[in-house]
Amino acid sequence: MKLFAHQLRSEQLLYWRSRELAFFTFLFPVMLFVLLDSVYGDDVIKGEHVKASAYLLAGMLGYGVASTAFAGLAIVLVLRRESGILKRVRATPLPPATYLVAVILSTVIVFAIEAAALIILARLVFDVKLATQWPSLVLALLLGALSFAALGIALTAPIRSGEGSSAVVNAIYLPMAFLSGSFVSPHEYPRFLEVIAEILPLTYFIRLMRDVVLRNHTIWSSWESAVVVAAWGVCGLVLAVRSFRWAPREG
Predict the structure, then answer these.
(1) 71: Cβ–Cβ under 8 A, 6 or more apart, which residues?
(2) Which of 107, 116, 122, 251 sits at a 20 to 30 Å CA gap from 88?
């Protein structure tokens, strides 16, 4: 436990000292929420009959989990792997599982702070009514963070270089965020885009967020979306266990 606590503290220090990482995975989603909400936050979403600011809050919580727990974690682990840091970790007394759990928990903590910032901004600045099902909201956010963290770790396996990690990750998570409805309502999408969106894990997480945040549903009454997100997380965990590498792929 002492090793775990020390590593968790180190991961938090490393994250917040990395200005680029903290900006693009933590601050950028918050800034994007403020900008988009300022433009069309007072509109009413067609087909949903809800204020756009509330609808956007749920979508940006989805974008935040993809940015922080999926993209950010994948890029960091690839860079550490290719620079030899992960290989050196294996030679220390720190157990590999303890190291990875500390990395994942640090990511969950960052996303929790980000989600709290988004919710507080939505309430204080854009007058969004907050959900009353707080336990369900916390559980849904935790489920999303863990599932996308598992997918992010699994994604590190096919990425061959640190230089290409950002390009590969961005090419996956940015289109996924758009198609899943993080920024706009997906009701106006062409049919072929709707079909693609239906197979993406982020679609179901955002759907779960909108059920909990907009409609005050419990996570249990929206169990279909929760099960799909969890299933993707389990698939990511299995792939991560089978294919995660500690040694550099190149050099």
Answers:
(1) 25, 152, 169, 170, 172, 173
(2) 107
Euclidean distance between CA atoms 65 and 147, whole angstroms: 10
Judge contact between 76 and 21, C-beta under 8 A. Answer: yes
Per-residue pLDDT tens, the chain, 251 aa: give them: 889 999 999 999 999 998 888 888 889 999 999 999 888 877 877 766 778 888 899 999 999 999 999 999 999 999 999 999 999 998 888 999 999 999 999 999 999 999 999 999 999 988 888 777 889 999 999 999 999 999 999 999 999 888 889 999 999 999 999 999 898 777 778 888 889 999 999 999 999 999 998 888 999 998 999 999 999 999 999 999 999 999 997 65
Give the span between the Cα atoms of 107 and 216, in whole angstroms. Answer: 27
Q: List the beta bridge partners of residue 51.
A: 44
Cα 62 from Cα 229, distance rounded (Å):
12
Q: 166 phi and psi, to 5 degrees?
A: -65, -40
Domain residue limits, the chain: 2-243
Q: Give the CA distances from residue 88 to residues 93, 152, 154, in Å, rounded to whole numbers and listed in that order.
A: 11, 21, 20
d(CA 100, CA 86): 10
Q: What is the largest CA-CA distance in the chain?
A: 57
Position 95, amino acid? P
- pTM of this prediction? 0.94
User: At residue 51, what are phi and psi to the nearest 5 degrees?
Assistant: -65, 140
Fill in the DSSP letter of residue 25: I
- Measure the CA–CA gap between 134 and 128, rounded to whole angstroms: 15
